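Re-running LapA family protein to confirm reproducibility after the cluster update. Everything else is unchanged from the original entry.
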Amino acid sequence: MRYIRYALLALLAIVLVSMALANRAVVTVKLMPDALAGLLGFNLSLGLPLFLVILGGIIVGLVIGFVWEWLREYKHRRKAAVKDREVRKLEREVDHLKEQKHQGKDQVLAILDDAVPTHAERR
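Result of re-run:
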């Protein structure tokens, strides 16, 4: 399985390098259209190789997608955290009740009592 992963990564690297070599032409990337830049009085422009523009767009899209999904799943993470706190609280309560039940008993009998299921647990 590891070799398949390495083969796929090598194939991806070959494709990306060949795409970069095929798209080395410098393009001008502008912040705003010329008409809007004329109204505002400034425009930022940068000359970059085309492959950097393409790969940069892909990376920016991935980052925006990951952040969007992380924000969208907030309510699910919050609900899971609340349930986790509730489970830990109930486990502490069960341990406390077991200690109260076996208080004053022999330790071996208390362990055996916990090991044998009650009538409600058998169902």
